[in-house]
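Case study B.
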Amino acid sequence: MPRLSANGTHTVSFTLNGAAVSGVAEPRMLLSDFLRHIVGATGTHVGCEHGVCGACTVQIDGRAARACLSLAVQVEGADIRTVEGLAPAPDRLSVLQESFRTHHALQCGFCTAGILMSLDALLRDRPDAAESEIRETLAGHLCRCTGYAPIVKAALAAQQTLKNETGRERADA
Amino acid sequence: MKPAAFDYVHALSAGEALEVLHQEGGHARVLAGGQSLVPMLNMRLARPSVLVDIMAVPEWRRVDDDGATLRIGAAVRQADLQSRADLSRRQPLLAAALPWVGHAQTRSRGTVCGSVAHADPSAELPLVLVATGGSIHLRSRRRARRLAAEEFFTGMMATACADDEIIEAVSLPAARPGAGYAFREVARRHGDFAIVACAVVVDEAGTRLAVGGVADRPVARALPAPDAPDLAEALNQFAWDLDARDDLHASARYRRELVRRIGRAVIEEAARCRA
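Model:
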């Protein structure tokens, strides 16, 4: 039975955006802090640190989850995706990111990384999600700039683009 | 907003987890999905010296359905239960309440038993257990016991779980033919804690309404039939007996009004579902 002592540091390893990462952490270190301070992946933002604001949302094993409500030691061996993993290439945005830009779905951008990770998971798992499901997903996030309407618009537009892309691939096959 | 230091034990079997709880007494806490406990750690409202992670214990990852009862193990995540295709048929009240438990982003990690252990008075899952007459299965190194949900919740975030015990499962009766179920809640934002939540079972035995968010724990009461003339008075009496308090989120008066209105709405909805 592995027991990690409170004041010792322990190696934590997981997959981050497809690449293996590892670092040392005390048991009490949150995943959000591990990502930002140990790995140096600062795209994940930290707002309330008790699960309410949604800024730190990442994907753990394919599901949107709060990085501030998970200990780094709990995700040993897990598959983690963060906002850094969304863009297909350094000079190209993902469909969802591009749609956020087109529809002015962000102003200050503090909440954006978390919202992108939630919506990315939703549009992948439920390509035909209704607007009500998009709104329900957004209920897990606070945005103080946009009033949410542009975010809903961006998500719906991205959904349409993704569907058309899938359709083209089928036609090519 | 960072947790105080603690040892972390990754238990691989139930025996290992129970041994740590036995050795450490009240200094250890069980860590499952962490969606209630980690906020408490971050705010240092909880300062355990040891956390026992139980998510890898095989026998606690199961949902068992023997036809009459649904038994949900300690390591079953809310999202996994919610995604069971037959849940709305097997236990419609649970299926109706789950989308209201936190947000999708917390249900992905949070467990059913963890929410029950946390025992927030406005939480949906304790309410469903009380409404349906569910049970809490407790285990420690020295004994296993089963408590009715109404006995288990003893106050505001207080339960009958002893320091060396873990909730190894909760169970609730599966849907019975001829029974109707309904759930509704009012909150400031979908996913926030309920100001008032109502869950009801209407069957041949009568109407059983449970209310969360008002008293210091979920409370159930038998009420007159949906079409009975004295239902309004009984609902009013129930609303007053819950001893609502004013707080930041709502006044006591508003809460009583919600109990009367949502209470009636869920009873009527459940009666319609029966037919």
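The CA atoms of residues 89 and 132 of chain B lie 15 Å apart. The remaining cases will be described in the next quarterly update.
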